[in-house]
Amino acid sequence: MPRASVTPLTIIKVDENATINFQDFLAAEEPLEIRLGYGSAQNRVQKSISVTMRTPGNDFELAIGFLFTEGIIENIGQVASIKHCNGLSENVVRVELINDLELDLSKLDRNFYTTSSCGVCGKSSIDAVKTVCRLPETVLDQLQFPVEVIYQLPDLLRQKQRIFDHTGGLHGCGLFSSEGELLLSREDVGRHNALDKLIGATLQQQLFPLDQYLLLLSGRASFELIQKAYMAGIKMVAAVGAPSSLAVQMAADADITLIGFLRGKKFNIYCGEQRISLKQHQLEVS
Predict the structure, then answer these.
(1) What is the enclosing helix (H) or strand (E) of 80?
(2) How far is residue 138's CA from residue 180's CA, in Å, rounded to a whole number?
(3) What is the pLDDT of residue 160?
(4) Alpha helical stretches, state H, the chain
């Protein structure tokens, strides 16, 4: 039986008028271990490569998205099979890669660069990411998003956040076309997991390349999220919250358009303004 994404709990609700018992719903948070099977047909190796705290659901997408954004696989064709170990009730996923695939598992060491607490300089972090990305650069970059379309995106994503409706406690992300059409969305208690699920889904559904879509984040834009967008070839990222300084540096260096504080009919452009149609808006210098 699949593990639930929402956990019910009776709580005590207090306001200035009353204290009542109330049936609430919490976003489930459980560990997921990702195991990798690789090697020759005669000598298969199994290795545990990650344990992440996530909201149960879309576990296969999460595992595939993680392997792709960490540079372990280049495409979905390198995955032979994927399954839950010991059934759906277990928080362990095993990904079997095709026989004799050459791997460089040292790329997982790049996780050291993507933690907010590490003391490595920004340039080292960005250079580490660039050595892993293997997608070709867009030859003819004509992507343009009208301002009026960008204004609408948070509400469109919010309408698809089913678990958030019950819990109010999940991060969401979505891919949008320049016409404002939502291609896919995913949510999770971890913002990086939500994006790995989204990218994993696009790989499984063979929707690459993603350079004609905008990625919307329901919270802030961290370096790690920009790194994952870069690995997927996404050229525009918008966040409802603020970006970090290293996220802006990464986006500028990777030629990614980065938008922050997208709320109502306002937003900030931090870099890559050429992909936003500002024809009716005259730039004022203050």
Answers:
(1) strand 79-84
(2) 21
(3) 84
(4) 59-69, 111-114, 122-130, 147-158, 162-167, 191-204, 223-231, 245-253
**Is there a domain that residue 196 lies in?**
yes
Q: Please report whether residue 219 resides in a domain.
A: yes
Rounded-to-integer distance, Cα 90 and Cα 217, Å: 29
Give just the sign of the alpha carbon dihedral 88, 193, 131, 108: negative
Q: 249 in a domain, yes or no?
A: yes
User: Whole domain around residue 183: which residue ranges?
Assistant: 145-277
250: domain CATH number is 3.40.140.10
Name the DSSP class of 50: E
Tens-place pLDDT, residues 104-150: 877 666 554 444 333 344 455 566 666 566 676 666 788 999 999 99
Q: How many domains does the chain have?
A: 1
pLDDT at residue 194, as a whole number = 96
Closest by alpha carbon to 202, among 68, 3, 37? 68
Residues identified as active-site = 118
Query: How far apart (Å, rounded) are the C-alpha atoms in residues 38 and 90?
Result: 21
User: Residue 241 carries which side chain, given as an amino acid letter?
Assistant: G
Q: Give, to the nearest 10 degrees, the angle between helix 122-130 and helix 245-253.
A: 40
Instruction: Assess if residue 78 is contained within a domain.
Output: no
Owner of token pair 């990650």:
50
